[in-house]
Amino acid sequence: MTLISTFWAVSPIWSQPAFWVRGLAVILTALALAYGAPASAAPGFSVADGTIIGPDGKPFVARGVNVSGPNWVWHHKTAPDAALIADCWGFNLVRVNIFLFPETKYPQVDDNNDLDAIVQAFTSRGIVVVIEAHDRIGSFFAGADLKYLADWYAGLARKYRGNPYVWFDIMNEPGGYGPPDGDKWLLTHRTAIAAIRDTAGADNIILVEGTTWGQDTGRLTPEPVTVAESAILGLAGEVTAFGGKTYDNIVFSIHVYDMWNFPPAKLAAYIAEVKRRHLALLIGEYGSETDDGLSTLPATRAMFEVAVPQQVGRAVWHWDGGTVNTLTIGRPGGGWQIDSCTAPHNLTPLGQLVWNDNHPAGEPS
Fold it and tell me: What is the pLDDT of residue 296?
């Protein structure tokens, strides 16, 4: 028996094709993350029949948290918390809040202006990083602002097209009360989608948010959402196919706050209709209270009741604290102030709901 045949005989795992396939996938993914290789070089995320499929070929269900990014409003640094976010809390996605323009009613600080450091800190751990433009809340990008947005996304898409763990959320909470302004909603999202797909050649997941400040309900009522009141239900086909092209890997997103402060039946009916249309959905924000003091815990509880069994991903607002939507007791109430990673005792009602969601019974802590 030769030395080589002896090696194969005593090391049967090395002789299995599956071993080499898995090993090659790991190597390609690592190279893509480190050197920005073409997107096809690494297993990525995709959307198939309304389901987000992860690099492992299984459905990916986000359990995420919003975090501070460039020009955001709080001083706490995000990148150093990557281990705490991933290993302690068990989040698998972060939505990075970014202001592009200085003219906003909120203060802006530069503590988290190194976006590359944030991306590296999380994607190196296999955590999805959703990059989102938080400007023009309740409105739309237009004119020079829209061109700036498209150019910004084209640049990011070129940089991160080899990293499938980077996603792009076009804009935060477009449109105000009432029926969707379809023309403005479509123009904003089509322009950015074309910049990412056609100009930059990136196939990363793109998030498209509904109107009514992202809640996509049209009205503050308990009745089911109608097609006329929802940009996602009414216009999804026109934002994924235009200009003679069809664009894939699109995920739609809503925010769950006061307009969902009703029994779970309203949200259940909405999600059922989204799924009937074979659209992928992610809840990009949920919390415990609005800025004017209205509790949204009923909406959050309804969300967990409906979204978890339906395998709809979700991302809580906000890791940093600093607002009424705190995860821990005290100030500023950020997730980073948790007192234990095995049995925490300083969680707020919202923090406890999130902790329980990320640590289901039967799963390791």
Answer: 96
